Amino acid sequence: MDRETVGSVNRGRLQVEVRTEGRSEIVRPAGELDHHTAELLRVPLEEAVDRGRVRLVVDCSQLDFCDSTGLNVLLGARLKAEAGGGGVHLAGMRPVVARVFEITGAEAVFTVHRTLEDALADD
To answer: Is the pLDDT of residue 9 over 60?
Structure first.
């Protein structure tokens, strides 16, 4: 299994780490994903797809909050990844974040996994 650290960015309330594992691009946002921080997540997701890395795994285990702007970033990444033959897998969502996906119906359009390991098992 190849592992490569691609990088990380930090803007106060949100830090985003990116790494490659197998055929998956793993993106781990930690903190609060909202209008002020969403760009920090959007950029690495789009860059991954632009590089042909269309199996995106978003490790949500350290995500404390997600508003509609963050949700829209993930929905946009999903469309781009699917257009390239891939998809977005969400892993390890905390209850407060899972609730946003549940009440908006967005959980139905993503592949959701209990843990990161579960998401990578198909890799």
So the answer is: no
pTM of the model: 0.89
Residue 121 C-alpha from the chain's centroid: 17
With b meaning 16 or more CB within 10 Å and e meaning fewer, what string describes 64-92? ebbeebbbebbeebbebbeeeebbbbbbb
Is-contact 16 9, C-beta < 8 A?
yes
Strand partners, 112: 90
Pairing of strands 24-33, 55-59: parallel
Query: Which of 32, 33, 27 is CA-nearest to residue 8?
Result: 27
Return d(Cα 101, Cα 47) in angstroms, integer.
24
